Amino acid sequence: MFHPLASSDVALILLLALHPLLTSAAQYCALKPPSGSSPSISSGIQQGTNATDPSNVVASAWYPGWLATDFPPSSIAWDKYSAMTFAFATTTPDVSTIALDDVSAQALPEFVSAAQSNGVTALLSIGGWTGSMYYSTAVATAENRSAFVNAILGLVSQYDLDGIDFDWEYPGREGLSCNIFDPDDSAHFLSFLQELRGTDTGKTLVLTAAVSLTPFVGSDGQPMADVSQFATVLDRIAIMNYDVWGSWSPTVGPNAPLDDSCAPAADQDGSAVSAVNAWTAANFPANQITLGLASYGHSFRVSSTAAIQGNSLALYPSFDTDPSAQPVGSADTPGDTSLDPCGNPNGVSGIFTFAGLISGGYLDPNGTAAPGIKYTFDSCSQTPFVYNETSQVMVSYDDAASFAAKGRFINAQGLLGFAVWDVTGDQDDILLDSLHEAMGIESVCE
User: Fold this and answer.
1) b or e along 186-212 (b: 16 or more beta carbons within 10 Å of the residue's beta carbon)?
2) For 374-428, what is each residue's pLDDT tens digit?
3) Residue 90, CB-side half-sphere exposure with 13 Å CA sphere
């Protein structure tokens, strides 16, 4: 006699029949701190009152598309990230056009495919230091804002993007010397974001912004006291806690200080601690903030008499400010005669990636100071410095220890996660693995 099956029986039979297909399908993974974890924090930094949300953590980095020939998307350790941002598309005089260089345009489809096949959110960043020239124009009027929204939606459709990162450097401030800017940039930017978020596609996009150590400036040129409205249209921000000290500074200093409140007043130019305090005080929620981390450092030409005090390296020593004395970094191309968008020579940046410090003989393959290289770790900024006495080159950078300290800070302050500039700068994931370990990140797959 035929017996009809209950609905629960049918479901079980279907599940068993589909089991081989289900087990062979791609997994969807999230990176999460272990539940019940109670991370510690380095001395001198206060524990936040909000606990880390164990539901997820944003583990992200920027991918410089112009380096795709030497570092293709297949080189990325995708399983260690939850989001990856392709840099950069750039603003143009035509608000309906957002540009990509030829290498980037060729690499972007491969990047998006690789990210999405690994369950990683794929974003495209618009702007950057040399690509923000026309942001102000693009959001200045209602007509321009609508055209800019449509241009972005066109990119999203063309490249099947999951989100957009706005790296405007900077609303209401000049940034690069020829950038257009306006006192009402921040207000216009908010109106633009609201319009983009209000579209059918915009409702589903991940929208992020790379921001400075202080909140967006208002029409008076001062950081805004309340940026809560930005939090309603942006999923998160990434505080760019790097380039705090460099060749433009009066002395050598930390590229990416975790803290500077413990330094002399003259040496306080901002840090992760001051930045998070500033943004949260302006009502941007901590759980929508990711901390920007640097996989690179800045070099300085420092005489041995200034660099060495006794058996230790001096902190904040003077350096040779003559541009011709700037050490050539691993990111520089010798004999480079290129110009920036303003027509000025790019010159020597002096930037050394972490991997470049290893290949340049400053660090061993494991990321520690090489023989003959002097090393010190500044307990206040929680960042290291190395010095080659023969070449008189000092470099302020981040190592595994400083990444770990920042990871503990992220957890203790209840931040959403991290964003590394950039994914190509690490060596064998030394920095990234240290960060994962310090934060207690686990990969949880479904």
Assistant:
1) bbbbbbbbebbbeeeebeebbbbbbbb
2) 999 999 999 999 999 999 999 999 999 999 999 999 999 999 999 999 999 999 9
3) 19
